[in-house]
Amino acid sequence: MLAANLVRAGLLAALVLATLSSATSIWLLYVVAFGAGTAETCYDTAAQAIVPQLVAPERLSRANGRLYAAELTANELVGPPLAGFLVAAGVLTVVVAPALLWLLAVAALLFVRGAFRVDAGKPRVAEGLRFVWRHRVLRTFTVVVGVFNFASSGTQAILVLYVVGPGSVLGLDERAYGWLVTAPAAGSLLGAVLAERVERRFGRARPLLVSFGCAAATLAVPAFAPDPFAIAAAYFLCGATLIIANVVTVSLRQTLAPAELLGRVGSSHRLVAYGTKPLGALAAGALAPALGLRGTFAVLGLLALAASAPLLRLREDELLSPPPVSPPPGAGRRRPAGCTGRRRGRGGP
Fold first, then answer.
1. Biased-composition ranges for Pro residues (predicted)?
2. Are residues 61 and 178 in the same domain?
């Protein structure tokens, strides 16, 4: 995690130097974006794998919910307006500010004490893929999320054509479109706050089925209700329900996967879950000329809804009482070997 943030800060620092020397080019931006995206993947995978070493198993949902809430607030609600302010302040400010923020993130990580290492043996990515494929619950999550992301990415790719401009279905301007796309972020923030309470009240199997089913159904709303307020309400619901499902699935993956495979299991899941998103955007671009925008929304929404069907087979007992995970040699009851971090207070990490 430290290395990933240093790489991201370093890439932005190189872009700052290029800007100062008037040596910027679109190809340099491509390299920086590619490198930052690669580092982000490494960081996010490690960040999910480290959570079980910081909190007790019964507090994973609370910790993940609060982490999602913090990430969504910064990434979706604070970040875009801040970016607009930075653009107005000048080109150099746009690249200097993120570099400084990533260095600040490095400084914050230095206060997390401990080595947080497990005996993972010789790293083999294929082990994570095999574990996910052979584990029915994790395989189900990966397939459902992969297909859902395929469909949702497709709807996002054509949404601007549906919403913006005098020739669009809704005929809204750019500012209204900006407000519309903040609806899922606001809903996600609410879902992150409520996720632990929902799980405690209703268990895990039922919220997963209802959350993915509701989120899938909302993708098709533009096809049947061409009204900006109806679509905003649907997207708000989509964000709220989907983040509840995310908190539950991430917490379960952290519980079901062995400590020495957790990083590889997480990266294998994300390979499928995020790898389908560009494919969904391409598919929507191919379908829209043939089916029209409303027809494409309907088809992708039905696809996402059909993808939720495997969740009907999940039993509450296999989710609430997962098989115990064998800790590495020398580990305590709650903390893997090598983690010497101080136990946090009542609110998780």
1. 321-330
2. no
pLDDT at 178: 84
Question: 269: domain CATH number?
Answer: 1.20.1250.20
Mark whether 154 and 227 lie in a shared domain: yes
Residue 128 lies inside a defined structural domain of this protein: no
Regions of the chain short of the pLDDT cut 70: 120-123, 125, 320-349
Please write the tens of the pLDDT for every residue from 74-84: 887 788 778 87
Q: What is the pLDDT of residues 188-201, one digit of tens each?
A: 999 999 999 999 99
Q: Which pLDDT belongs to residue 122?
A: 67
Work out how many domains the chain is built from and give that number: 2
pLDDT value at residue 125 = 65
Question: In this structure, how many other beta carbons lie within 10 angstroms of the beta carbon of residue 321?
Answer: 8
Q: Does residue 29 sit within a domain?
A: yes
